[in-house]
Design a protein that fits this description.
single chain, alpha+beta, 7 strands, globular
Amino acid sequence: MPFTEHKIQQKLFVIRIYAKISEIETVIINIVRKKIPVQFSILGKLAKNKGSTKKELEKTTTQTKQQLSTSLGQQFQFGYFIHPDIGSLFIAGHLTPTFLTKVDENELASLPSGLLGIFRGLEIKTEAINGHLTDLKNGNYCLIIRVERDLLETIKPLLKK
């Protein structure tokens, strides 16, 4: 019996670090204008210091969600968690459920090795992961893009700061 071959597009994750959310917004707008089919997630610190009160954290969360709604649209997933080494972080976009999956009543990303495990699951190399975690500690933001391998060269020029 003859068979047919089905080619499945291979998707990969690209992570870029930016100092400001406004830089990420510009990148997202440029990619959306070109109608390139990708999925976006943004990971970053909510508060500059670890000792923020719950009220301060809620206020910052609301402000961050409003700011991101401009570039991600009104319908996007959003959540936050407390990482023991980095502090309070937010995740927005399609990877939100992955970061906030409950493990023994805690968010996966809030576990000491949770972020490392999530990035490894995205097939990011350990050296790069360590750099991304340092960038997060320093207050930078990670733009995580899921894209088909064939379109990678198309979006690369759009990722520049």
